[in-house]
Amino acid sequence: MPWRSLHATEAETMMKHNLCIVLLLLSAIVGAAAAANTSLEEQIAVTGVTVNPDALMRGDTGTVTVEIKNTGETGVAISRAELYPNGISVVNDKTYDSVGTIGPGNTMSFTFTVRADASDGIYYPIFYLDLRDSGSIRYSVPVTVESTEIQVNIVDAPKTFPANSEDTIVLSVGNPRGNSVNGVTVTPTGEGVASTQTAVFLGALSPDEEKNASFRIQASQSTKLTFDVSYRNGLNEHHATLTIPVEIGERAVEPEMVVNNIEVARSGSTVTLTGDVTNAGLKDAYSVKVTVDDPATPTDPYPVYVVGGLESDDFSSFEITCLAQGASSIPLLVQYKDEDGETHSETVTVSLSSTEQTGAGNQVQTGGSGVITRSGPQTVTRSGGMGMSFGGGFAQVPLLEIGLVAVGGVAVAVAWRKGYFGKIRDRIRK
């Protein structure tokens, strides 16, 4: 190869190398210039906003937290951070009067306490960040004020309350708000009212969630019963109340003993009372017993008739024997227990003035606390078609009728075996 050609090739290689160096230097210069042209405001980004609680009720105190991040490669000096009210009050507006420098890639958060003094609506306080070297950042934060309260309703409650008797009241507590509430507690209060539960804790209620609270209430007088529902929205405590009237009185839904079809018969000094006892209430009666009270004295064979349980609209016959020398009437005592085990009794007065030795009767009906007496002969009506009722002994089984039917059957069988029916048939033919 000629010397001139070799020298030209080396020169071209050197020129290419120098050109690459120049391009790299230009790229570095352009990058540095671009970095220099990036403003400090552009390095700071708002990465998160939190409002607690999500929705404030009027008068509530809450917090607004703003988080920022330095996305650049150089530190940014911050003079102060502030939240301008714009419709709501800011309690700690001087907390961030001096902040400092946030390094590249670092985050920083600012928490402000706010108070909802305004009416319901959405407000936009402005987060303001003042940079020390130059510029500032503004960011609008939405804050909702919504004052809808917790709803309390009656699910089940009696219209009247028997005095000193326990009854159940069921309430529903619902959250119609758009945010959760916490620490929901229901407390009953009322003069002359006692509850087996001093309070019922329901805990947290999510938006549109409903929970029930059940109370066993015992009232000694007519009064007003108030249920106080306390709950927290964030750190703010609120109350909702529900008041219901408590009226003392008897209820038809309780067991109600009705006595009728009474028949009175005398045998010497012994008086026998028979009749029916019916549960006319809407609840079952338990341990039902029928006997007599002073001046009558229960005596054998049936001093007490044990009916047992009586469902609603069910009835049973009874028979009582007693001594009532010189008495013009006999108190018939019906005792029973309700579903809570509490014992009740009702007294029915049976007149003896028109009773003869063969027996005559009075029809007596009780309803609640009153007694209604109707005089006149009566016929005892019993269930089962044959008047059979167990629970008072075999005296109520119609032995005479059964015996007659049995004797008749035996006689027919004997006559058939002796051929009497055939002889009678032959005589008829002749």
Automatic annotation (TrEMBL):
<feature type="transmembrane region" description="Helical">
    <location>
        <begin position="397"/>
        <end position="416"/>
    </location>
</feature>
<keyword id="KW-1133">Transmembrane helix</keyword>
<dbReference type="Pfam" id="PF07705">
    <property type="entry name" value="CARDB"/>
</dbReference>
<keyword id="KW-0472">Membrane</keyword>
<dbReference type="InterPro" id="IPR013783">
    <property type="entry name" value="Ig-like_fold"/>
</dbReference>
<keyword id="KW-0812">Transmembrane</keyword>
<protein>
    <recommendedName>
        <fullName>CARDB domain-containing protein</fullName>
    </recommendedName>
</protein>
<dbReference type="InterPro" id="IPR011635">
    <property type="entry name" value="CARDB"/>
</dbReference>
<feature type="domain" description="CARDB">
    <location>
        <begin position="49"/>
        <end position="125"/>
    </location>
</feature>
